[in-house]
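Box S1 | Example of a co-folding query
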Amino acid sequence: MSAILAERLALISQQGLYRRTIDYEPVDAAHVQKDGRIYLMLATNNYLGLTHQPAVQQAAATALAFGTGSGGSRLTTGSHLEYAALERELAAFKGCEAALVFNTGYMANVGAISALAGPDDMVFSDELNHASIIDGCRLARGRTVVYRHNDAADLAAKLAATDCAGLRLIVTDGVFSMDGDIAPLDDIVAVAERYGAMVMVDDAHATGVIGPGGHGTAAYFGLQGRIDVQMGTLSKSLAAEGGFIAGSQVLINYLVNTARSFIFSTALAPATVAAARAALEELIVRPSLVDKLQENARFLRQALAEGGLAVSPGETPIIPVMVGEAAAATALAEELRSEGIIVSAIRPPTVPPGSSRLRITVSAAHCREELAGAAECIVRTAKRLGITGEEN
Ligand SMILES: *Cc1c(COP(=O)(O)O)cnc(C)c1O
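Box S1 (continued) | Returned holo structure for pyridoxal-5'-phosphate
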C-alpha cells in the first residue's frame, strides 16, 4: 500500500500541488505567532474578530461547566439546552420559522442537499459553488445540472430544458468563497419562481458580512421570506464551529428526520454552541462591527488597486489579487510570509490554470495603520517579483 500511496503523492508533488498543514499559535483575532515571530493574518474567515471578544470567550468558558463534550448525537442524548436557544436565535436572525445546527458548514450542505434531492428530484448548481455543495450533489440521489457562474439566463435555459417530476432545487453560494463576488440572488429567485423551483443559498461568507446588520444575502437583496433554504456557518463570522440551515418548520422537521450528517454524528460541545450564541448576540447588538469590516475591505481593496495590482472589483472582505501562474502566486505568498504577512495563494485545480491569485481577507479586527502598511508591503513585494496588474 505504502508504495502505491507514495507514487500518488509523487504525482501530486510533480504538479506543485502537495499540501501540508502549518500550525500557528493564535495571538489575537488578527495576528498569529510561529517560531517566536508575530504575523499579520490576512487570510482568515474570522471576519468580525469575535473569536477573541471577551464576552464570547466568557460564554464558552462558562459553558464548560456542562462538560467538554456532548456525549451523544442530537437525536439521542447530545441535544443540550444551548442548542434550542441558538436555533431560535438563528431562525429569528434569518427571518425564518426555524433553524437546525449541524456540526460543520460542510455537513450542513452535504446533509441538506442529499436529503432534499431524492431520486425524482434535481439540483441546479452554480459552477463555482463550494466543495461542500458539490459533495452534497454527489451524495444526492437526484440528478445535478451545473449552470454557468452567476448566470441566471443560463439557469433559466437549463430549467426550461429539463423535465423533472419532483423537486427542483437551485443552490448557490451567496458570497463566493474564492472570488468574493455576490450571487445575483434577485434574478435567481425570479427564475426560480417562474419555474416553481426551490432556492438554497450558502451564506458561509455572507452572514455577518453583507446585507443590513450582516443578515446575509437574502437581506442584501431584500428577499426575506422568499428563500426556501438559507445555509450559514458558525465557523466564520460567528467565531465558533458548526453550520446551520434556516427555513420553514416543515423543512427543519424533514432534515431532522432525513439528513444523515445531522443524525449520525455527535452533537457539538456546549462551549462551542455557547460561543456561537454569544457571537451572534454581539453581531446583533453591535452592527457597527459589520460597518467596520466593510470599511476595512474597501480601504485595503482600494490601496492594492491604487498600488497597481490586479484586484477584482467587489464589495466583500474577500479580495482576490490576480497573479497568473501558480509558481508566481506561491512565490509572492512566500515572500509576504517572510515579510510577516500571511495570505493564501490559490492555484489550480481550485481555480483555472493561468488564473492563480492571492486571496486576501480582512476582518473588523484589523486596524487601519496595519492595513495601510500591509498594502504597501504587498505592492512593493509584487513589483519586486515582477508581478503587476497590467500583465494579467
Ligand atoms: C467554509 C464554507 C463552508 C463549510 O463550512 P465549515 O463550517 O468550514 O465546514 C461551506 N460553504 C462555503 C461557501 C464555505 O466557504
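Residues 86 and 148 are 36 Å apart (CA to CA). The longest strand covers residues 318-324.
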